[in-house]
Amino acid sequence: MSDLVGYLVTGLGLGAGFALVASGLVAIYRVTRVVNFAQGAFAVLAAMLTSSLLGAGLPHGVAEAGGVLLGAAAGLIVGVVAIGRPGTSPGTSLIVTLGLGVLAYAIEVLIWGDQPRSYPGVPGVAEVAGARLQAHYLLILAVTGPVFAVLAWFFSRTDLGKALSACASNPYAARVVGISVRRMGLHAFVLGGALGGLAGVLTTPVQQVTFDSDVALIVNGFAAAVLGGLTRPVVALAGGLLLGVAQTLVAGYGGGAYQVEVALVLMLTVMIIQSARSGPVPATAS
Amino acid sequence: MRLAVAAVAALVLPLLLPERHLATFVLLTLAAAVTVGVSLLMGYAGQVSLGQASFSAIGAYTAGLLAVHGVPPVPALLAAPIVAAVAAVLIGFPLLRLRGHHLAFATLAVQLILLSLLAQAEWAGGAIGLQGIPRFSVGDFSLREDIGYAYLALLVLGIALLVSRNVVSSRPGRGLRAAATSEIAAAASGVPVGGYRLVVFALSASFAGLAGGVYAFYLGYLAPGSFPVLLSIEYVVMAVVGGLGTLAGPVVGAVLIVVLVQVLNTLGTMPGMPDYAPSVLSYAVYALLLVGCVLFLPRGVVPALRAVADRGVARRTGAG
């Protein structure tokens, strides 16, 4: 029983990381229709910078904030290159973000080398319903919950959030009422970068990060996001948590080797079912 | 005429190259053969595959395992493209319903699953890899020198080019081109879009599988790490940079990128350079070429050069 609780909380913590990556993907996709392949790179860059800042003696909190800021800045750069030129199709933008993700490898290896990095998070061991687990998992959950609440408030209550949602639901109408769709797209990339950065900063103490960790992050994030058709952040949160729990349960009871397959097979199944339901040609938003 | 010149040049080149460059030539030619398939898939069927290296891996492991267990090299090599194509049909049947970024992620996922399974498969050598693959031989004639593998690789590239040229100019090929532009219109005109897509997917997988088979005999050793996700991305880079939907494109793309990476590698390993320099330089090359190409030369190097050449000819004839 206590094993199960332990796996569940660890799984939720792991899943919260996926959910943050997924919400970044969703924020960008909703507004720009671009699936951002560089989303995992934001997390890796932020985690690497945080480890350096902590190494340089900066206090916790400041170092993590620096990491998230770098994620947001990287988001802006990727956004400018991927959607900055008029007439870039979403397909082309996808390839551009793929290329920028590889460019991030060069930058990361150049600055931080190719060895795994980590840094201490919340120290100590917590007890939840008789299960002992690293206390840091509780911090991940304690941060992710409010972040999603703020996201929901941001999209539904603030002017900027409403403008972003307007671009998401009808770009043409948004342009008619004077919203710059491209500028909103860049805002979405900055937001996506910050969310990706937050994911990397939060999960690195419990999972080491290397320059090519982004592949696993982006695939898990995409798997979580795809549940909600890439447009609904709350479903992405649920998807991420589900994925994290499923993976830790498989690792805990079924042997650690197969946890990668769980996420991927789940994602493939969901995508195939969705495409079978909606037909081979996706309906385009008018 | 141009084709004959290119063929002769390709056949003579291995004889002129110094011994130490032959390995690069073999790997380049095999990469070009895989890229021909990627270009066919992306250019004619309109599909992005980020998992093409998994079909190379399937072909390589098929040939390697058969050869290790005593099957003569020729049938072992011939099995490589067949098994890869069968795998592509099995995988493609559910996956090819997906479009665009969904298909890109699905193929990436398939490759990650394959790599994870290979690393756990004890019978395939697991994470350590499959060792002791014999050299390629036909009867008593055994291929020991790099030069032999250079011609074997050229043969593979020639087959890939020939097959894809015939596919492109065939009726199904025209149907596919129509489907890449508008799937609904093509389907309405009676093109069995789904079936053709599956065939192209299987065909491109068989090129990758055949190249993988030669790779297995050439190196004599295979590991899951020989087929990373980045390798699949490299094939996409080569196809996009060279120019999708042309036959020369994939070859030019592969040559351009492999030679450039090789030159930078040589620079990066010069004394005094830090040990991470080669990988940093090659990542940067892939990234900048890919981004630069899709933004500024969206149709690739070969069509761009052709357009420049045509303009030059037109100007000269116009003046004269």
From TrEMBL, chain A:
Q: Name one GO molecular function term.
A: transmembrane transporter activity
Task: Provide the GO biological process annotations.
Answer: amino acid transport
User: Which topology term describes how it sits in the membrane?
Assistant: Multi-pass membrane protein
Which keywords accompany this UniProt record? Answer: Amino-acid transport, Cell membrane, Membrane, Transmembrane, Transmembrane helix, Transport
What is an example of a Pfam family matching this protein? Answer: BPD_transp_2
Q: What is this protein called?
A: Putative ABC transporter permease protein
- Highest taxon in the source lineage: Bacteria
Give the main location.
membrane
Q: Where in the cell is it found?
A: Cell membrane
Give the stretches traversing the membrane.
Answer: 6-29, 41-59, 65-83, 95-113, 133-155, 184-202, 222-245, 257-276
PANTHER family named among the record's database cross-references: ABC TRANSPORTER PERMEASE PROTEIN (PTHR11795:SF450), BRANCHED-CHAIN AMINO ACID TRANSPORT SYSTEM PERMEASE PROTEIN LIVH (PTHR11795)
* Family as reported in the entry's similarity comment: Belongs to the binding-protein-dependent transport system permease family. LivHM subfamily.
List, alphabetically, the GO terms of the cellular component aspect.
Answer: plasma membrane
TrEMBL record, chain B:
Which terms in the GO cellular component ontology are assigned? plasma membrane
* Keyword Transferase found: no
**What is a GO molecular function of this protein?**
branched-chain amino acid transmembrane transporter activity
Segments crossing the lipid bilayer:
28-46, 53-71, 77-96, 103-128, 148-168, 199-223, 235-264, 276-297
Is the keyword tRNA-binding in the record? Answer: no
Q: Which UniProt keywords apply?
A: Cell membrane, Membrane, Transmembrane, Transmembrane helix
Topology class, membrane: Multi-pass membrane protein
- Family matches, as InterPro entries: ABC_transp_permease (IPR001851), LivM-like (IPR043428)
Protein name per the record: Putative ABC transporter permease protein
Q: Which organism is it from?
A: Actinoplanes missouriensis (strain ATCC 14538 / DSM 43046 / CBS 188.64 / JCM 3121 / NBRC 102363 / NCIMB 12654 / NRRL B-3342 / UNCC 431)
The organism's taxonomy opens as: Bacteria, Bacillati, Actinomycetota, Actinomycetes, Micromonosporales
